[in-house]
Design brief:
- By secondary structure, the chain is mainly alpha-helical.
- It has 3 domains: 22-132 and 142-157, Cytochrome Bc1 Complex, Chain D, domain 2 (Orthogonal Bundle); 172-285, Cytochrome Bc1 Complex, Chain D, domain 2; 302-433, Cytochrome c-like domain (Cytochrome Bc1 Complex, Chain D, domain 2, Orthogonal Bundle).
- The protein is built from 18 helices and 4 strands.
- It has a two-stranded antiparallel sheet. It has a two-stranded antiparallel sheet with strand order 3-4.
């Protein structure tokens, strides 16, 4: 009898150990998937605890604050069942029945598989530390703050939840890349233009060439780049290896990450497996151009020759030589995988110059990552260049070394963006942007 009891106890202990191991693996997988979804970037405020929310998000109708998604039962999602969790993530419906603002990219997450959702749930319930931090109310004024219109929006524009399925005979690597880009990576949330009713114009490539063709309006003072195969402002001139370099390290021979993309590199992409990085790169390279007639960039050395001879008479050239040439060179080629080239840079060649103006005014920092530990810092020049000088140097960059742009930047454009950036950064940073 005692032996039977002992055997039963040992058997139970062994089963529990196996269950714990299984749970541990599920939690670990969920952590990886949360990295792929970059959940921490939106749900963690500056200097805040991971996933405790509170990050402000500016929208055209006011400021939202991300929510606490730690397993705290009082202020987080600790009392969410799996069904509650998947409804919030894939359907955009909170436990209390409210529709979530589409700042939460549930239209993308609608394709996430059941197995991946279960792993994510295990991670957030058992792998994340609970934080008792109440959610902040939005600053959106009434009646725009009412939730019921969001339910109508969700019904009209959010897709039915349907787990991703590879196409018939689709290459497994392409299928994996498509799943990550369309689903957890939610790349379209930033890189696809939106309609006047704020839904993405396409949620996948089968819905048209607007998909991933670049944002239609600046977000937080930045524009998201064209990820399709366009020759001037897209990825048409990039190789698959160029794209892998950018995804892994945030830099390559063509450009460097800026704005919100630096968070994606730091918190998400640098942690993905080589296979997943390759899958994403291969899928993006498979996308056709939005504008197949777009002219191919062709380098021109006329500006470089003039500057080499000391001729800085072109408008904006003297500012460039004084403030930019030390890092980006007089021929605009930069320093390989450190200071990005401006010659032929897709961000420079984009129709919308907002991002280029922003980084001249406020600077930026690309953090060091695994395999590329050096932090790249672009200093702010807003404090020493006035609006006209910024406009002149941006126009110079956009029309030199073979870069061509028909859209001229004006001092008024710079002034408006300077004010917008100052408002976002707060009074502590205003001195950086004064530019008298």
């Amino acid at each position: 009898m005692k032996k039977g009891i002992l055997a039963l106890v040992l058997g139970t202990m062994t089963f529990a150990a196996l269950a714990d191991d299984s749970s541990s693996e599920l939690v670990k997988r969920g952590e990886y998937l949360a990295r792929a979804g970059d959940c921490v970037a939106c749900h963690t405020s500056k200097d805040g605890k991971p996933f405790a929310g509170g990050l402000p998000m500016a929208t055209p109708i006011g400021t939202l604050y991300s929510t606490n998604i730690t397993p705290d039962k009082a202020s987080g999602i600790g009392d969410y069942t799996y069904d509650d969790f998947q409804k919030a993530v894939r359907h955009g419906v909170a436990k209390n029945g409210d529709t979530l603002y589409p700042a939460m990219p549930y239209p993308s997450y609608a394709v996430v598989s059941d197995d991946d959702m279960k792993a994510l749930y295990a991670y957030f319930m058992h792998g994340v530390a609970p934080v008792n931090q109440p959610n902040k109310e939005s600053d959106i004024p009434w009646p725009l703050s009412m939730r019921w219109p969001l339910a109508i929006w969700r019904t009209m524009f959010a897709p039915d939840v349907k787990a991703f399925q590879p196409a018939s005979q689709e290459d497994p690597t392409l299928a994996r890349g498509r799943y990550l880009v369309e689903g957890l990576g939610h790349c379209g949330a930033c890189h696809t233009p939106r309609s006047i009713t704020m839904q993405e114009k396409a949620l996948n490539n089968s819905e048209g060439h607007d998909y991933l063709s670049g944002s239609s309006a600046p977000v937080d003072g930045w524009t998201a780049s064209n990820l399709r195969g366009d020759n001037r402002d897209g990825l048409g001139r990039w190789s698959e290896d160029d794209l892998r370099q950018f995804l892994r390290y945030g830099r390559n021979d063509h450009t460097a990450a800026f704005g919100g993309m630096t968070d994606v590199i730091e918190h998400s992409l640098q942690h993905l497996s080589n296979d997943d990085i390759t899958a994403i790169a291969r899928y993006l390279k498979s996308l056709g151009a939005k504008d197949p007639q777009q002219a191919v960039f062709s380098a021109d050395d006329a500006t470089a020759k003039a500057l080499w001879k000391g001729d800085d008479s072109q408008t904006g050239a003297s500012v460039y030589v004084d403030s930019c040439a030390a890092c980006h060179k007089t021929d605009g080629s930069g320093y390989q995988r450190f200071y990005p080239a401006l010659r032929g840079n897709p961000v420079v060649l984009a129709d919308d110059p907002t991002s280029l103006i922003h980084i001249v005014l406020a600077g930026g920092e690309l953090p060091g990552v695994k395999g590329a530990p050096s932090t790249i810092t672009m200093p702010a020049f807003g404090w020493r260049l006035n609006d006209q000088q910024v406009a002149d140097v941006v126009n110079f960059i956009r029309t030199s070394w073979g870069n061509q742009s028909d859209k001229k930047v004006t001092a008024k454009h710079v002034s408006e963006l300077r004010k917008d950036v100052k408002d976002r950064q707060g009074s502590a940073e205003i001195h950086v942007l004064e530019g008298k």
